[in-house]
Amino acid sequence: MLLGVPEILSPELLKVLCEMGHSDRLVIADGNFPVESMGKNAVIVRCDGHGVPEILDAILTMIPLDTYVDHPVNLMEVMPGDQVATPIWDTYKEIVTKHDSRGASAVGNIERFAFYEEAKTAYCIIATSEKAVYANVMLQKGVVINK
Question: Which UniProt keywords apply (predicted)?
């Protein structure tokens, strides 16, 4: 155990977060996301039994978001015609606001199939047991600055 490290972050995930450089992206995937097929070139970390919000919150205590892009956090847009609510997005925006001064304006949306293409280039994809639909979130890591 280490002081100041959220318990939900496994040693494997901490290692991956340390390995990531500026502009590298990671996807925190819901339970329906095709992790294995999208992550052929990514490090896959399993966080079974956990939901996306708690993983997102823990990760954002450890890494900054990229300040050189408008939307360092991106969500998968709902497909036209799908009649689903996405209240989990509000939760994500609250979490981002807690960790980034840009608040909800740091969060953007990417069309579903474009999100898949972007996910294929991610450094890491984290598999969760999140049951909410359209609950995938992509983060772009920023620069860690010593204060």
Answer: Isomerase
